[in-house]
Amino acid sequence: MVGCSMKSPRSENAMMVSKWPYSPFSGFLCGLALAAVAGLAGCRDNRPPTYRVDGKVAFADGSPLRGGEVVFESVSLGIEARGTIDEEGRFQLTTFEPEDGAVEGEHLVLVFPARRNADGGRRFEHSIDDKYLDYSTSDLRCQVVAQDAVNTCRLVVIPPSVRDDG
């Protein structure tokens, strides 16, 4: 039997063996550690499931938006997923872990094109209308379905609107 030896308060020479394998303080520390681990695991378990999502951002003529970022926001949960748009207009979404996808349901979509550098830095020949920068004006939507297969979202954007300021 594993025990904890302690001197009895009655006599300095008398020894007492506890029936508990740990002292009260080490038991407290063990309980505290278990609660912390359970709490951390609980946070992970409380996450809603995600489903893989990839897609492409392109113009109506099929030419890709070259570079930028997409942001999907779940209509029902308000949870965002993000993805980087590559040179071919492709992206994969990340919510909690790299490329884990997005939560199930309808999503509002924003598109942020790569920035143009006036000083001769990285340039892209396409830009898009400003309406895709705000949820209240973007008309882009994507439905994410709970499935093992990858959800694919094709997003069609338009060039900047010609505004008549006269």
Q: How far apart lie the N and C ends?
A: 92 Å
Q: Provide the gyration radius in Å.
A: 28 Å
Number of domains: 2
CATH class of the largest domain: Mainly Beta
Q: Assign the structural class, choosing from mainly alpha, mainly beta, alpha/beta, alpha+beta, or little secondary structure.
A: alpha+beta
Uncertain runs: 1-30, 34-42
What is the third-level CATH name, the topology of the largest domain?
A: Immunoglobulin-like
Helices and strands, in N-to-C order?
A: EEHEEEEEEEEE
Strand content: 25-35%
Protein architecture, described:
There is one protein chain. The protein is 13% helix and 32% strand. The protein has 166 residues and is of the alpha+beta class. It folds into two domains: 5-45; 50-157, Immunoglobulin-like (Sandwich), CATH 2.60.40. The strands form four sheets. The chain has a four-stranded antiparallel β-sheet, with no helix packed on it. A three-stranded mixed β-sheet has the order 7-4-11, with no helix packed on it. The chain has a two-stranded antiparallel sheet with strand order 1-2. A hairpin with a 5-residue loop joins strand 5 and strand 6 (80-85). The protein is globular and about 45 Å long. The model is unreliable at 1-30 and 34-42 (pLDDT under 50).
